[in-house]
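Notes from the pairing session

We agreed to fold both candidates in a single pass and log them together. This is the raw record for the first candidate, unedited. Please don't reformat it; downstream parsing expects exactly this layout.

Candidate A
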Amino acid sequence: MDYNSIFEIIEDECLDILQNSNYGKRESATFTADTTIKLVMKELRAPVNKRSRKKISKKILIIAIAATLLFSTAVCGNSYWKIWREGGAERITNDNRDIVGKEVIHSGYYPEHPNDRKDIPPTSLSPNEIVKTAEEGAHIPLSMDIFTTTQDKDTFITPEIIAANNAMAIFTTPDKKGWKLEKGDILNFEVLLYPCEIIANQHSAFMYILNGELKEELTGFHQKDIKYQLCAKEDGYYHIAFIGASSETTSLHEGKIYITKSKGSSNLP
């Protein structure tokens, strides 16, 4: 049974509890996941004759509340609905920071029925403004999200992100053109992963995009302190793509990208 089914079973009973509580009658009441859970638990502990409501199953309500708490107290909010329901990658904000380093099972990869599995690697690429094609043999992720860096002189700062399993986060320059490299130049990406509650050292991987083509080359890491170096095999515009390669979400602190020029190459943009 999935979480939607659980809440459909008990939605009328929960609503009845909230409507008949003094808290729910206050004009200034603000309902949040936290306060709602506390209120329902408080009402469940009250004697039955003090509750003006139809009979409900205490066990079902407790199961529903426990299921909610598995994904923190705000799983039903819009703040990280995308991560929970669809996977993908997004910036870390105050709204989703409480799931950093925690396991988040999302329906895009763990459907209720085995026959409806959606975690089979896609066979075709969905082009976007950066990735137009894919080299034969290149790994196609389940999602691709684009993140713009901020430039500080010769260094580009990447935002903090959280990524689900097999989600690709593509980092680009402020103008979204990518980094112009000459053969032999090295594009460096240094970043620290947030600790994970399940695995001490998570798996992660990097790919790159050259002139709009997702390349086959894939570099894996099994450590928190990552130093990825992309050596340009030819002239062109490059993008770095991070992939969450762990069953748990993978979260990145702010990182930095910078170019190490090869001898004899030009510094011209």
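Candidate B (folded immediately after A)
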Amino acid sequence: MHSPFVYRLLTECLYKKEKKPAHQKVLEYRQVLLQDDREIKVTDFGAGSRVFKSDKRKISAIAKNAGISKKRAVLLNKLISYLEIKSALELGTSVGISSAAIATGNDVKLTTIEGCPETAKVAGEYFERFGLENIRLEVGSFEEILSGKAPQPPKGEQKKFQIQNSKFQDPSRSEASNPGPNKKQQTSNTSEASIPTLNTKQQTPNHKRESSEQTPNSKHETINTSEASHNLQPTTYNLQPTTDNRQPTTDNRQPTTDLIYFDGNHSKEATLKYFEQLLPLAHNDSVFIFDDIHWSKGMEEAWAEIKGHPRVRVSIDSFFWGIVFFRKEQEKEHFIIRL
């Protein structure tokens, strides 16, 4: 191990044995989903599923087969805390287990994008129930949202989600991403009694956000961009190169983000496309995490190209994740580690 940065990352974070209230809350989030036997109709936009043969799936089965494991959920939560991630973008919400792992107990603002409206609705319910007010959920295809072409449904069709135009930028520095106390979350038509509960006592992490049950005044914000054929103002993404290094954005400085978690389309072409498209959002201390880098030959080829990119200085292959850093002060190195 030649890199002091990677050595500290392993010994002080990933390999460190510790139990925090946030870890327990993340595991409870996952466990409740595993007990949710409601059935929904799923729309696949990515490479498809190797497990499911039908588009009608139980939420519990989605959580078991498509969600991250208990171990990875805790590792992701620890990583966000250790790296002091303040702003994050996730491609592929699913039912929100990785989103909860990023957001729970951490001082981070997360924007997560999900293409399937039914899956996103489930995630939105659980974000509200677990008090995850620091998550912004957008519904629509990655291509539309990232290119700024996602239509917004008119006010008359705001049935399940609170609607707002959005502009991706560092959420921790954006007034638009921090709605005031008068903005109320619209609730789903799914009754609260139909959502399973754990028999174990819920623990609340020691931070400002309250956990457990839904509250009608929750500030959690869900943005539905799945309705098409409406002549509305598009979402705008300003993806231009920047030299910003965690500095406050100004009118002439492009926004950046500290973390991007890629877990939405496990194909070579899409992975490389989103990597190149979102690369301008990376600053010197940013981290990109790619899920399932050994999922297929195409994903392994995509990972090889990503870790060889000139801007990537440190890359870590943990078998299930590919993690890259852009630290200009370091020599280019690649690590294979066991987590």
